[in-house]
Amino acid sequence: MNSLTSLPALPASLTTLYCHSNSLSSIPTLPVSLILLDCEGNLLTFLPALPSSLITLYCSGNIITCLPVLPGSLQQLYGANAGYTCLPNKPAALTSITGPSVLCDSISTSGSTSFCQGGSVILSATTGNSYLWSTGSTTQSIVITNAGSYSCVVNMSCGNETSNTITVTVNPLPTVSFSLLPDTTQLHHYIAVNNSTGLPPLSYDWSWGDGTHDSIPYPSHTYADSGVYTICLSVTDSTGCTNTFCDSSYHIMRTTNYMVYIDVMNPLLTGNKEVNLQTAQVTLYPNPATNQITILSSSFHNEVVAVSIMNVLGQEALSYSLSFGEGRGEAIDISKLSAGMYFLQMKTENGSLTKKFVKE
Fold this sequence. Notes:
The chain is mainly beta and 360 residues long. It folds into four domains: 1-101, Alpha-Beta Horseshoe (Leucine-rich repeat, LRR (right-handed beta-alpha superhelix)); 107-171, Sandwich (Immunoglobulin-like), CATH 2.60.40.10; 178-265, Immunoglobulin-like; 272-359, Sandwich (Immunoglobulin-like), CATH 2.60.40. Helices cover 1% and strands 40% of the residues. The protein has one helix and 31 strands. A five-stranded parallel sheet has the order 1-2-3-4-5, with no helix packed on it. The longest helix has 4 residues, at 275-278. The termini are far apart.
């Protein structure tokens, strides 16, 4: 420990330089053979270029504004309270750092850069004198809500640093909706058509408004108590994004005189666009039915019709191939079906038609 204010030219063969706890404001050119530099506790505002052989650097307790490029050989850096706030680069050999360790060209984030629509992330540049983001903002931190690539030019005391580029991804919310309608063929029975879409696989949470929930896409529900209920559906997609829809057009009310039932169905079962068979006059009777149901139509003339019976989940329960004679009805055995609502689909070469019936 001395009170040196300057150093003479250093010999080319020097490998170790100890000059800590002095009043040095500068250090002369360092020899290429130097492997250790200890200049802690001085008045240094900068360091000269560091030799490629340097392994250990002590520079704590100075007022250095910016470090020079760190050599690839550097293994240890001691820079607590040295003045600088970031590193110009980080050699692969550097395994021990005391003091600032963030890169000058880095951007830090407050959370994930991939989030759901409606979310945000805060991007922060390394501390400097001034900032210019790719968005035009001039603050150190910015709040990002839109997808894109973002970077920042930071003005440091030793020059401008252009940050790395951060890519932000905004995932869309799943589209959630259902249509709630009263069943025209069965009293106190309602149908909800689940029209929700999103990035699969999807998970579901049906909230029936009575404290109960279902987690499948096409559930059935019975209300046990009297009251007015609002049904809500929450859908979460594979990215973890969740959206919620609540029915506001029709309230489900159960009085003490009857029970209320709801079946949720796949929109693929709500009808067909084929015109030829859609115009056919087809009747199912009786409806509701118990053991068998009869298909009657004057539109079929000695035709073979493929008949499928599907539940509200779209699963095929029965299938038949029927030959309709002139004006003759065809009876189908449904005795093995469980009670509930079903869809009877008929297909010919001219198209297809779906009719609904209830099994008691």
